[in-house]
Amino acid sequence: MPDDDAPPPITGPDLANKKLAAGLTGILLGAFGVHKFILGYQNEGIIMLAISLTGLASGLVGGFICCLPATLLMAPTVLGVIGLIEGIIYLTMPDEQFARTYVIGRKPWF
Fold first, then answer.
1. What is the pTM of this model?
2. Residue 63's pLDDT band (boundaries 50, 70, 90)?
3. What is the mean pLDDT of residues 46-71?
4. What integer is the mean pLDDT of 104-109?
5. CB 68, CB 62: distance < 8 Å
6. Helix (H, G, I), strand (E, B) or coil at 47
7. 7-15, Cβ contacts within 8 angstroms, sequence gap of 24 or more
8. Residue 103 and residue 10 in contact, taking contact as beta carbons nearer than 8 Å
9. Residues 68, 4: contact at Cβ < 8 Å?
């Protein structure tokens, strides 16, 4: 039985716009998970945003406290690289494959 609450599949110009928006924000704002929110992945977007903000905050405090873990300080950079890679993947993927993988298949990471 089909799920009546599920939104209809996105096709045509709507899919192209979503793909472009997700790809560009992945490249430009990937560390903050904006591209995840565009694709409807709220949990993953919140995870990326929280880790980035925690890493940025610890970087600001790290100037005063020298013993913060290096992984917290590098988190925004690592997530930025992940966002960059995901953005490039989104933009270079054919529309049909993008829809199957990220819109219909709901694959949240890479």
1. 0.78
2. low
3. 70
4. 87
5. yes
6. helix
7. 9/99, 9/103, 9/104, 10/99, 10/103, 11/99, 15/95, 15/98, 15/99, 15/103
8. yes
9. no
